[in-house]
């Protein structure tokens, strides 16, 4: 009898322990990852977003965006305003020539029957030419010679930079799946044309990859399956940074946070470093050295022979000079950098309260093209899902936005009383100035920032902004990529929100 009682108690203890270990929904009480409870899957111990190749975590926050020093030209194209940003990742360096050559190699290998794909990705090497300069050697040598492989790629348009970001996103996610054994690495060999890995086509089931040695498994049934978005393995897209992200990352004001680690910044910066000089201030070997690659004065691109000031007549290797307090190189000088925003001189003046978080001009809201049953219609000629702008019927009852293309919001649409050359506008607005016709600004104008090897120090300030059409290139413009940070803004060691633990008050017993 005693033995039977002990066995019963042991069984009860095991059952209680199993119930405690089993994860259950706080909403319904149903068990996760259990076939008898319906089979809903939940990751048991998600560790957080990993850091992609060459990326640095930029913890977001609030800052004064825009030109805060004297506006000498009085053009008000970068009026200061308070702005907050969610955390994100930024490339430690500018994208290099060797990065671009890898991209070109992939396009030739995977799309042999579509040579136009490779041709459209070629940088404009003729951007080096000038009527009264002997820059011809750079046309042949700068992109392909190994001496320049760690130099920033130039001569790429905004459109080409965006295509590179998409390609990079897919290659990084494919690499992650292969490294974790989720798909077979031999699947790379058979990819061509439409039958090419892209994140969207894989997650939607269009691209069928061969399982690797450690395929994803349904914990409820034990059956092998493809990796899902909910598995948290794949990273968000690489993208061009928004203008706000780029400027925040360039200033790196966390380096000037007060000793009390409160919300006070001790000093505003003109450049991505402290002080009003472009020379290294600390005593020692590098004291007085130029800390960025720019044109110091008329005809002075690198200083005197035997005493070169920035040691670069044109660009320099991307890990040259001093990184800022986020660890980012060349956020001033070397090359200007494309950002994602459409240029408008008055963007900062049209901000309203709801634009004080993650401000960006250039939204065209899209969605995947789907069949009537909800499945994607397929992929385009290079293997990516097809997207389309949201149509009027899909957004007619919305309150947060009324159009899918809001590039002109508050500055160029009918509501703002500015005419961009649309013949449908009534005569009352015809007298207004027309961007793209009476000026160089149009919906194709994109912002670039940072200053270059050919610019004076004035343009090194992160608040400065200029523009160029998205399909034009320059020998002074390159780019770097950014990525969204999902989850906790401060990294994987911290949870979101203030995790304040308090002691529960004990109630006195009444006798």
Automatic annotation (TrEMBL):
The UniProt record lists the Sulfatase-modifying factor enzyme-like domain at 53-359
Q: Where are the stretches annotated Disordered?
A: 490-511
Entry keyword set: Signal
Give the Basic residues compositional bias ranges.
501-511
Statement: the UniProt record of this protein carries the keyword Transit peptide? no
Gene3D superfamilies assigned to the protein according to its UniProt record, in alphabetical order: paralog of FGE (formylglycine-generating enzyme)
Any single GO molecular-function term of the entry would be: formylglycine-generating oxidase activity
Signal peptide extent: 1-20
Report the PANTHER family cross-referenced here.
FORMYLGLYCINE-GENERATING ENZYME (PTHR23150:SF19), SULFATASE MODIFYING FACTOR 1, 2 (PTHR23150)
Entry protein name: Gliding motility protein GldJ
Source species of the chain: Saprospira grandis (strain Lewin)
Organism taxonomic ancestry: Bacteria, Pseudomonadati, Bacteroidota, Saprospiria, Saprospirales
Which gene produces this protein?
gldJ
